[in-house]
Amino acid sequence: MNDLDFVRYSRQILLNEVGESGQDSLSSCHVIVIGVGGLGSLVSHQLAAAGVGRLTLVDHDCVELSNLPRQLLFNDSDIGKSKAITARDKLALAYSQCKIVSITDQFGPENGASIVNMADMVIDCTDNFPSRQQVNRFCVDALRPLVTASVAHFQGQIFTVDTKSAPESGCYHCLFPTDSQVSETCRSVGVLGPMVGVMASMQALMAINHLLGIGQGSGKLMRFDGVSFKWREASLSRDPQCDVCGVKAKESGYHQSAHEQSCSKESIHKESCHAPN
Amino acid sequence: MHLTKAPLDLKHVSTITVSINDQPYIIAETLSIEGLLLAQNIAINSVAVVCNSQVVTKGQWKEQRCIEGDSFEIFAVVAGG
Lengths: 277, 81
What we know:
Chain A: InterPro entries: ThiF/MoeB/HesA (IPR045886), ThiF_NAD_FAD-bd (IPR000594), Ubiquitin-activating_enz (IPR035985). Chain A is α/β, with parallel strands linked by helices.
Protein backbone atom coordinates (compact mmCIF):
# COMPACT_ATOMS: atom_id res chain seq x y z
CA MET A 1 0.00 0.00 0.00
CA ASN A 2 1.41 3.38 -0.93
CA ASP A 3 1.52 6.38 1.43
CA LEU A 4 -1.46 8.14 -0.14
CA ASP A 5 -3.64 5.07 0.17
CA PHE A 6 -2.48 4.63 3.74
CA VAL A 7 -3.67 8.15 4.52
CA ARG A 8 -6.87 7.76 2.47
CA TYR A 9 -7.92 4.64 4.37
CA SER A 10 -6.33 5.57 7.70
CA ARG A 11 -9.63 5.67 9.64
CA GLN A 12 -10.46 2.17 8.44
CA ILE A 13 -6.94 0.84 8.98
CA LEU A 14 -7.15 2.19 12.53
CA LEU A 15 -9.82 -0.38 13.30
CA ASN A 16 -8.30 -3.51 14.83
CA GLU A 17 -10.78 -5.59 12.83
CA VAL A 18 -9.49 -4.09 9.56
CA GLY A 19 -5.87 -3.03 9.82
CA GLU A 20 -3.54 -2.77 6.85
CA SER A 21 -4.02 -6.43 5.94
CA GLY A 22 -7.80 -6.05 5.89
CA GLN A 23 -7.54 -2.99 3.70
CA ASP A 24 -5.25 -4.89 1.33
CA SER A 25 -7.75 -7.71 1.34
CA LEU A 26 -10.58 -5.36 0.33
CA SER A 27 -8.50 -4.06 -2.54
CA SER A 28 -8.24 -7.58 -3.94
CA CYS A 29 -11.99 -8.27 -3.74
CA HIS A 30 -14.40 -8.31 -6.66
CA VAL A 31 -17.98 -7.47 -5.74
CA ILE A 32 -20.94 -7.68 -8.12
CA VAL A 33 -23.78 -5.23 -7.47
CA ILE A 34 -26.97 -6.31 -9.23
CA GLY A 35 -29.36 -3.40 -9.57
CA VAL A 36 -27.97 0.14 -9.50
CA GLY A 37 -31.08 1.91 -8.28
CA GLY A 38 -31.83 3.15 -4.77
CA LEU A 39 -29.88 0.52 -2.88
CA GLY A 40 -27.34 -0.29 -5.57
CA SER A 41 -26.17 3.25 -6.30
CA LEU A 42 -25.54 3.87 -2.60
CA VAL A 43 -23.97 0.47 -1.90
CA SER A 44 -21.62 0.70 -4.88
CA HIS A 45 -20.63 4.23 -3.79
CA GLN A 46 -19.85 3.00 -0.27
CA LEU A 47 -17.86 0.00 -1.50
CA ALA A 48 -15.84 2.00 -4.03
CA ALA A 49 -15.04 4.63 -1.41
CA ALA A 50 -14.08 1.98 1.15
CA GLY A 51 -11.42 0.55 -1.16
CA VAL A 52 -13.00 -2.52 -2.71
CA GLY A 53 -10.72 -3.27 -5.64
CA ARG A 54 -13.20 -4.31 -8.33
CA LEU A 55 -16.88 -3.64 -8.81
CA THR A 56 -19.19 -4.92 -11.51
CA LEU A 57 -22.43 -2.94 -11.76
CA VAL A 58 -25.35 -4.69 -13.44
CA ASP A 59 -28.48 -2.79 -14.48
CA HIS A 60 -30.43 -2.55 -17.73
CA ASP A 61 -32.52 0.46 -16.64
CA CYS A 62 -32.04 4.15 -17.34
CA VAL A 63 -32.23 7.01 -14.87
CA GLU A 64 -35.73 8.48 -14.41
CA LEU A 65 -36.84 11.72 -12.78
CA SER A 66 -38.66 9.82 -10.01
CA ASN A 67 -35.36 8.12 -9.04
CA LEU A 68 -33.55 11.28 -8.02
CA PRO A 69 -34.83 11.80 -4.43
CA ARG A 70 -33.14 8.56 -3.32
CA GLN A 71 -30.58 7.66 -6.00
CA LEU A 72 -28.10 10.32 -4.97
CA LEU A 73 -25.41 9.37 -7.48
CA PHE A 74 -27.62 10.67 -10.30
CA ASN A 75 -28.92 14.13 -11.21
CA ASP A 76 -31.21 15.75 -13.78
CA SER A 77 -28.62 15.64 -16.53
CA ASP A 78 -28.44 11.84 -16.19
CA ILE A 79 -32.12 11.24 -16.98
CA GLY A 80 -32.42 8.76 -19.83
CA LYS A 81 -28.86 7.49 -19.44
CA SER A 82 -27.89 3.96 -18.41
CA LYS A 83 -27.70 3.64 -14.64
CA ALA A 84 -24.85 1.11 -14.77
CA ILE A 85 -22.70 3.19 -17.11
CA THR A 86 -23.44 6.50 -15.41
CA ALA A 87 -22.68 5.08 -11.98
CA ARG A 88 -19.50 3.45 -13.30
CA ASP A 89 -18.26 6.69 -14.84
CA LYS A 90 -18.94 8.81 -11.75
CA LEU A 91 -17.50 6.33 -9.28
CA ALA A 92 -14.44 5.64 -11.44
CA LEU A 93 -13.76 9.36 -11.55
CA ALA A 94 -14.04 9.74 -7.78
CA TYR A 95 -12.31 6.49 -6.79
CA SER A 96 -9.64 5.73 -9.35
CA GLN A 97 -8.24 2.83 -7.31
CA CYS A 98 -11.47 0.89 -7.93
CA LYS A 99 -11.77 -0.91 -11.25
CA ILE A 100 -15.39 -0.68 -12.28
CA VAL A 101 -17.18 -2.57 -15.02
CA SER A 102 -20.77 -2.01 -16.12
CA ILE A 103 -23.13 -4.58 -17.59
CA THR A 104 -26.25 -3.16 -19.23
CA ASP A 105 -27.82 -6.47 -20.23
CA GLN A 106 -30.62 -7.68 -18.00
CA PHE A 107 -29.40 -10.16 -15.42
CA GLY A 108 -30.95 -13.55 -16.15
CA PRO A 109 -30.47 -17.10 -17.39
CA GLU A 110 -28.29 -15.99 -20.32
CA ASN A 111 -25.62 -14.28 -18.28
CA GLY A 112 -26.35 -15.02 -14.60
CA ALA A 113 -23.89 -17.84 -14.09
CA SER A 114 -20.98 -16.11 -15.80
CA ILE A 115 -21.58 -12.86 -13.89
CA VAL A 116 -21.91 -14.50 -10.48
CA ASN A 117 -18.91 -16.76 -11.03
CA MET A 118 -16.65 -13.73 -11.40
CA ALA A 119 -17.47 -12.53 -7.90
CA ASP A 120 -16.07 -12.85 -4.43
CA MET A 121 -19.45 -11.58 -3.29
CA VAL A 122 -22.78 -10.62 -4.83
CA ILE A 123 -24.99 -7.80 -3.59
CA ASP A 124 -28.66 -8.04 -4.53
CA CYS A 125 -30.11 -4.56 -4.96
CA THR A 126 -32.78 -5.48 -7.48
CA ASP A 127 -36.27 -4.03 -7.33
CA ASN A 128 -38.46 -7.04 -8.00
CA PHE A 129 -39.13 -10.52 -6.66
CA PRO A 130 -38.38 -12.65 -9.76
CA SER A 131 -34.93 -11.06 -10.09
CA ARG A 132 -34.22 -11.73 -6.43
CA GLN A 133 -35.07 -15.39 -6.93
CA GLN A 134 -32.76 -15.60 -9.94
CA VAL A 135 -29.87 -13.92 -8.16
CA ASN A 136 -30.30 -16.31 -5.24
CA ARG A 137 -30.32 -19.38 -7.51
CA PHE A 138 -27.12 -18.40 -9.28
CA CYS A 139 -25.37 -17.56 -6.00
CA VAL A 140 -26.40 -20.84 -4.37
CA ASP A 141 -25.31 -22.75 -7.43
CA ALA A 142 -21.93 -21.01 -7.59
CA LEU A 143 -21.47 -21.05 -3.79
CA ARG A 144 -20.98 -17.30 -3.76
CA PRO A 145 -21.96 -15.27 -0.69
CA LEU A 146 -24.97 -13.05 -1.34
CA VAL A 147 -25.99 -10.00 0.68
CA THR A 148 -29.62 -9.33 -0.11
CA ALA A 149 -31.51 -6.26 1.07
CA SER A 150 -34.84 -4.78 0.12
CA VAL A 151 -36.89 -1.76 0.99
CA ALA A 152 -40.36 -0.37 0.35
CA HIS A 153 -42.72 1.87 2.32
CA PHE A 154 -41.19 1.99 5.83
CA GLN A 155 -40.02 -1.63 5.81
CA GLY A 156 -36.55 -2.99 5.17
CA GLN A 157 -35.21 -6.55 5.14
CA ILE A 158 -31.60 -7.70 4.96
CA PHE A 159 -29.67 -10.95 5.33
CA THR A 160 -26.69 -12.83 3.97
CA VAL A 161 -26.98 -16.12 2.12
CA ASP A 162 -23.79 -18.16 2.26
CA THR A 163 -24.38 -21.71 1.11
CA LYS A 164 -20.70 -22.52 1.37
CA SER A 165 -19.96 -21.51 4.94
CA ALA A 166 -23.47 -21.42 6.46
CA PRO A 167 -25.63 -23.95 4.58
CA GLU A 168 -27.76 -24.54 7.68
CA SER A 169 -29.16 -21.01 7.30
CA GLY A 170 -30.68 -21.82 3.92
CA CYS A 171 -31.21 -19.35 1.12
CA TYR A 172 -33.57 -16.63 -0.07
CA HIS A 173 -35.96 -19.24 -1.44
CA CYS A 174 -36.15 -21.02 1.94
CA LEU A 175 -37.53 -17.81 3.47
CA PHE A 176 -39.55 -16.58 0.51
CA PRO A 177 -40.57 -19.42 -1.85
CA THR A 178 -41.17 -18.58 -5.48
CA ASP A 179 -44.95 -18.58 -5.12
CA SER A 180 -44.87 -15.81 -2.49
CA GLN A 181 -47.21 -12.92 -3.16
CA VAL A 182 -45.42 -9.59 -3.27
CA SER A 183 -47.43 -6.54 -2.39
CA GLU A 184 -44.77 -4.01 -1.50
CA THR A 185 -42.47 -2.44 -4.05
CA CYS A 186 -41.25 1.16 -4.09
CA ARG A 187 -43.28 1.74 -7.25
CA SER A 188 -46.52 0.58 -5.65
CA VAL A 189 -46.29 1.81 -2.06
CA GLY A 190 -43.60 4.51 -2.13
CA VAL A 191 -40.44 4.97 -0.12
CA LEU A 192 -38.41 7.74 1.52
CA GLY A 193 -34.80 8.31 0.47
CA PRO A 194 -33.38 7.97 4.01
CA MET A 195 -35.16 4.64 4.42
CA VAL A 196 -33.28 3.40 1.35
CA GLY A 197 -30.09 4.90 2.79
CA VAL A 198 -30.47 2.98 6.06
CA MET A 199 -30.81 -0.33 4.27
CA ALA A 200 -28.06 0.44 1.74
CA SER A 201 -25.61 1.35 4.50
CA MET A 202 -26.47 -1.84 6.37
CA GLN A 203 -25.95 -3.80 3.18
CA ALA A 204 -22.56 -2.24 2.50
CA LEU A 205 -21.50 -2.78 6.12
CA MET A 206 -22.67 -6.38 6.07
CA ALA A 207 -20.76 -6.92 2.82
CA ILE A 208 -17.50 -5.43 4.12
CA ASN A 209 -17.79 -7.30 7.41
CA HIS A 210 -18.34 -10.55 5.56
CA LEU A 211 -15.43 -9.94 3.19
CA LEU A 212 -13.15 -9.24 6.17
CA GLY A 213 -14.57 -11.95 8.43
CA ILE A 214 -15.80 -9.43 10.99
CA GLY A 215 -18.69 -10.43 13.28
CA GLN A 216 -21.41 -12.98 12.73
CA GLY A 217 -23.55 -11.48 9.99
CA SER A 218 -24.56 -14.73 8.32
CA GLY A 219 -27.61 -16.62 9.42
CA LYS A 220 -29.61 -13.67 10.65
CA LEU A 221 -32.60 -11.99 9.08
CA MET A 222 -32.81 -8.36 10.12
CA ARG A 223 -35.92 -6.29 9.55
CA PHE A 224 -36.21 -2.56 10.09
CA ASP A 225 -39.40 -0.60 10.67
CA GLY A 226 -38.81 3.05 9.82
CA VAL A 227 -41.93 4.24 11.67
CA SER A 228 -41.28 2.62 15.05
CA PHE A 229 -37.50 2.71 14.50
CA LYS A 230 -37.27 -0.91 15.60
CA TRP A 231 -34.86 -3.54 14.32
CA ARG A 232 -35.95 -7.15 14.64
CA GLU A 233 -33.63 -10.09 14.33
CA ALA A 234 -34.37 -13.75 13.66
CA SER A 235 -32.24 -16.81 13.00
CA LEU A 236 -32.63 -18.10 9.46
CA SER A 237 -33.60 -21.70 8.81
CA ARG A 238 -32.94 -23.97 5.89
CA ASP A 239 -35.89 -25.69 4.27
CA PRO A 240 -34.66 -29.25 3.64
CA GLN A 241 -37.12 -29.47 0.74
CA CYS A 242 -36.06 -26.14 -0.80
CA ASP A 243 -36.10 -26.24 -4.59
CA VAL A 244 -32.88 -24.22 -4.69
CA CYS A 245 -30.60 -25.31 -1.84
CA GLY A 246 -32.37 -28.34 -0.41
CA VAL A 247 -32.28 -32.08 -0.96
CA LYS A 248 -34.72 -31.96 -3.89
CA ALA A 249 -32.53 -29.50 -5.75
CA LYS A 250 -29.52 -31.75 -5.41
CA GLU A 251 -31.44 -34.90 -6.36
CA SER A 252 -32.92 -33.25 -9.44
CA GLY A 253 -29.44 -32.33 -10.58
CA TYR A 254 -30.22 -28.65 -10.58
CA HIS A 255 -26.77 -27.93 -9.22
CA GLN A 256 -24.30 -28.17 -12.01
CA SER A 257 -20.75 -27.30 -11.25
CA ALA A 258 -19.89 -23.66 -11.46
CA HIS A 259 -17.45 -24.45 -14.24
CA GLU A 260 -20.04 -26.17 -16.38
CA GLN A 261 -22.40 -23.23 -16.22
CA SER A 262 -19.81 -20.53 -16.50
CA CYS A 263 -19.28 -18.75 -19.77
CA SER A 264 -16.02 -17.04 -20.41
CA LYS A 265 -15.44 -14.23 -17.95
CA GLU A 266 -13.40 -12.44 -20.55
CA SER A 267 -16.31 -12.24 -22.97
CA ILE A 268 -18.37 -10.34 -20.42
CA HIS A 269 -15.51 -7.93 -19.79
CA LYS A 270 -14.92 -7.25 -23.44
CA GLU A 271 -18.57 -6.57 -24.14
CA SER A 272 -19.24 -4.37 -21.19
CA CYS A 273 -16.08 -2.69 -20.03
CA HIS A 274 -16.05 0.82 -21.33
CA ALA A 275 -13.39 3.31 -20.40
CA PRO A 276 -14.82 6.10 -18.25
CA ASN A 277 -15.43 9.27 -20.21
CA MET B 1 -49.78 -6.63 8.13
CA HIS B 2 -53.34 -6.22 9.39
CA LEU B 3 -54.56 -9.02 11.60
CA THR B 4 -58.06 -9.65 12.83
CA LYS B 5 -59.06 -11.32 16.05
CA ALA B 6 -59.76 -14.97 15.42
CA PRO B 7 -63.46 -15.54 14.76
CA LEU B 8 -63.43 -18.67 16.87
CA ASP B 9 -65.98 -19.76 19.40
CA LEU B 10 -63.51 -20.59 22.13
CA LYS B 11 -66.03 -21.37 24.92
CA HIS B 12 -65.59 -25.12 24.63
CA VAL B 13 -62.04 -25.22 23.37
CA SER B 14 -58.83 -25.30 25.38
CA THR B 15 -56.97 -22.13 24.61
CA ILE B 16 -53.48 -20.68 24.79
CA THR B 17 -52.19 -17.14 24.51
CA VAL B 18 -49.61 -16.27 21.90
CA SER B 19 -48.41 -12.97 20.55
CA ILE B 20 -48.50 -12.01 16.90
CA ASN B 21 -46.51 -8.94 15.93
CA ASP B 22 -46.50 -7.85 19.59
CA GLN B 23 -50.27 -8.20 20.07
CA PRO B 24 -51.71 -10.91 22.37
CA TYR B 25 -54.09 -13.44 20.85
CA ILE B 26 -56.09 -16.21 22.46
CA ILE B 27 -56.22 -19.21 20.14
CA ALA B 28 -57.21 -22.87 20.23
CA GLU B 29 -54.32 -24.86 21.61
CA THR B 30 -54.43 -27.42 18.83
CA LEU B 31 -53.60 -24.94 16.09
CA SER B 32 -50.68 -25.47 13.78
CA ILE B 33 -48.91 -22.45 12.35
CA GLU B 34 -50.83 -22.96 9.13
CA GLY B 35 -54.06 -23.11 11.16
CA LEU B 36 -53.08 -19.93 12.94
CA LEU B 37 -52.59 -18.12 9.63
CA LEU B 38 -55.87 -19.40 8.24
CA ALA B 39 -57.70 -18.40 11.43
CA GLN B 40 -56.34 -14.90 10.93
CA ASN B 41 -57.47 -14.85 7.30
CA ILE B 42 -53.87 -14.60 6.11
CA ALA B 43 -53.14 -16.14 2.72
CA ILE B 44 -50.54 -18.88 3.13
CA ASN B 45 -48.35 -17.65 0.29
CA SER B 46 -48.37 -14.01 1.37
CA VAL B 47 -46.14 -14.14 4.45
CA ALA B 48 -43.05 -15.47 6.18
CA VAL B 49 -43.19 -16.58 9.81
CA VAL B 50 -40.76 -16.17 12.69
CA CYS B 51 -41.51 -18.01 15.94
CA ASN B 52 -39.52 -17.04 19.02
CA SER B 53 -36.86 -15.34 16.90
CA GLN B 54 -36.38 -18.35 14.60
CA VAL B 55 -37.61 -18.46 11.01
CA VAL B 56 -40.09 -21.28 10.49
CA THR B 57 -39.92 -22.33 6.86
CA LYS B 58 -43.17 -22.95 5.02
CA GLY B 59 -42.65 -26.71 4.92
CA GLN B 60 -43.00 -26.84 8.72
CA TRP B 61 -46.23 -24.87 9.01
CA LYS B 62 -48.56 -27.87 8.91
CA GLU B 63 -46.66 -29.83 11.54
CA GLN B 64 -45.47 -27.20 14.00
CA ARG B 65 -48.03 -26.59 16.74
CA CYS B 66 -48.46 -23.29 18.51
CA ILE B 67 -47.71 -23.45 22.22
CA GLU B 68 -48.45 -21.15 25.12
CA GLY B 69 -46.33 -18.02 25.07
CA ASP B 70 -45.13 -18.38 21.49
CA SER B 71 -44.13 -15.05 19.98
CA PHE B 72 -44.85 -14.88 16.28
CA GLU B 73 -43.72 -12.33 13.74
CA ILE B 74 -45.71 -12.56 10.54
CA PHE B 75 -44.62 -10.38 7.66
CA ALA B 76 -44.68 -10.08 3.89
CA VAL B 77 -41.71 -10.14 1.58
CA VAL B 78 -40.36 -6.71 0.68
CA ALA B 79 -38.89 -6.72 -2.80
CA GLY B 80 -38.13 -3.09 -3.61
CA GLY B 81 -34.66 -1.77 -4.07
